[in-house]
Write a structure and sequence with these properties.
The protein is an all-alpha fold and about 450 residues long. Helices cover about 80% and strands about 0% of the residues. The chain is built from 23 helices and 2 strands. A two-stranded antiparallel ribbon has the order 1-2. Helix 3 (about 55-85) packs across helix 4, helix 13 crosses helix 15 and helix 19 (about 375-400) packs across helix 22. The N and C termini lie far apart (about 60 Å). The structure holds phenylalanine (PHE). Phenylalanine binds near residues 39, 40, 234 and 336.
Length: about 450
């Protein structure tokens, strides 16, 4: 496909700058899928499923992805493509000064998420290397303690951030797009292959049963419903402007509605298939109860424990699992840093290089806190989840009530079915999203409060 001509953007009314663009449609989709697919799918999703009573959570999660996830992604796409700016500038341009605050909340959220996300990604890399070098550790609980305390997590966090910064520094097309084009298909292949292998395990049936048979009680539990919503925002990279920023690099009239559906389905697909790996594996080893007593680390202890029990095959499978997880984490981390970097470029006319390095260094320093304390990491996860739900809430209000003629932007490039649903989607965004997302905000806030209370023993 021919490379489209870079588009000139008027900035601040005076000087014009060249805005980078994605080279191909597939490049944009894979970069967005790369942002969505990450630790959220292969680590957070299975552990949320364990917390939320198994299959019931899976169903609620599907519902939330359809009901609030896809419309919200469309909202972010519309704001980004119309304004051709990152969150702060985009919201200021389309909504006035006060809305810039929502953009700033997004940038802060991105900064905070990446600072602990990179720490977890560091553990993942460490596991993959351990598997390659010496095999998975025989005492997984103790091993988890060693890799999450002291200097080790800091070094891995640092190394991971260096790679993330390098990719973002190389630009949208040469860095982000190129990396996603290679890494995402590799990840799909590995995760799919692992699920097929997991089906051959003796004792896996119990895992499938847990994962796939819903209990009615949980389906009606408001806290579980709300958690499914929060997880959907996290997993789809919504509520902080990552999808908005990526859409600002679109130069053509893509069918945004169709792309939102494609991206959300791919994200759910990977999460679901990751569950088809994790649950049979831990059930085959009788470890299901360990994971549901869940803390951030549970899966990081149970899985390597299972891999070590399975001998040579477990070693190969484990290495592939952690490698795929590391790849997913990398493309997601790239999108997180891109939001902060693009905002610095747009707001301060900085060069990409200095913006990426500057933002990266600050995030790396903030990340020292969760690298040194698991409690801090848990708190940051709960805090940013609340921020994401808040961001999602105000984004729906913005597009529903403030943005000038959002349907026009949603219709640009849309055809057939995807064009015909726009009026219904707009009605939904105005009237139904605020109460539904408001409910999710409330429970995420309550959950944050509970996390604060247990952490500080209140
Ligand atoms: N969606 C990513 C994941 O599931 C995390 C993420 C959240 C990335 C928010 C960007 C923005 O791992």
């Amino acid at each position: 496909m021919a490379r489209p001509i870079d588009v000139e953007v008027q900035k601040h009314g005076e000087e014009s700058i060249q805005r980078e663009v994605f080279g191909t449609r597939v490049g944009f989709i894979l970069a967005a899928v790369g942002s969505a697919v990450g630790l959220g799918n292969m680590w957070r999703f299975p552990y949320r499923v364990s917390e939320g009573g198994g299959a019931a959570f899976v169903l609620l999660y599907i519902a939330m992805t359809l009901v609030v996830g896809i419309p919200l992604m469309l909202c972010e796409f519309s704001v980004g493509r119309r304004s051709r700016l990152s969150p702060i500038g985009a919201l200021k341009k389309e909504g006035g000064r006060r809305w810039a605050l929502l953009g700033a909340l997004g940038v802060l959220t991105g900064l905070l998420i990446l600072s602990y996300y990179s720490v977890i990604a560091g553990w993942v890399v460490r596991y993959a290397l351990a598997g390659i070098v010496a095999g998975f550790p025989a005492a997984p609980g103790e091993y988890f303690n060693t890799i999450t305390t002291g200097i080790a997590p800091i070094l891995y966090h640092l190394a991971f951030m260096v790679v993330v910064i390098t990719i973002v520094m190389s630009g949208v097309e040469k860095g982000i797009e190129r990396a996603s084009l290679v890494m995402m298909p590799a990840l799909f292949l590995i995760v799919g292959g692992l699920a097929i292998w997991a089906a051959t395990l003796a004792g896996s049936g119990e895992g499938y049963a847990y994962y796939l048979t819903p209990s009615l009680g949980e389906l009606l539990n408001p806290a579980t419903i709300a958690e499914a919503g929060g997880q959907a925002f996290f997993s789809l990279s919504l509520g902080m402007g990552a999808m908005l920023t990526f859409a600002s690099y679109l130069s053509r009239d893509e069918n945004l509605n169709r792309e939102a559906v494609t991206i959300a389905s791919s994200d759910f697909g990977v999460a679901f298939v990751a569950g088809l790996v994790v649950f049979p594996v831990i059930a085959a080893l009788g470890l299901t109860s360990q994971v549901s007593a869940s803390t951030v680390g549970a899966l990081f202890i149970a899985l390597p424990g299972a891999f070590v029990e399975m001998g040579a095959a477990g070693r190969v499978v484990g290495i592939l699992f952690f490698a795929a997880l590391a790849v997913g984490a990398l493309t997601s981390a790239v999108s997180l840093l891109e939001v902060v970097t693009a905002s610095i470029i747009d707001e301060f006319d900085a060069t990409r290089r200095s913006a990426a390095v500057g933002a990266g260094v600050v995030i790396t320093l903030v990340g020292l806190v969760p690298a040194l304390s698991l409690d801090a990491l848990g708190l940051m996860d709960a805090t940013t989840e609340w921020f994401l739900t808040l961001g999602a809430f105000f984004m729906a209000i913005f597009v529903g009530w403030r943005m000038r003629d959002p349907s026009a932007e949603m219709l640009r490039g849309a055809t057939g079915f995807f064009a015909s649903i726009v009026p219904a989607v707009m009605f939904f965004i105005r009237w139904l999203m605020p109460p539904i997302v408001g409910f999710v905000v409330f429970y995420a806030g309550r959950n944050l409060w509970n996390t604060v209370a247990t952490t500080f023993g209140l």
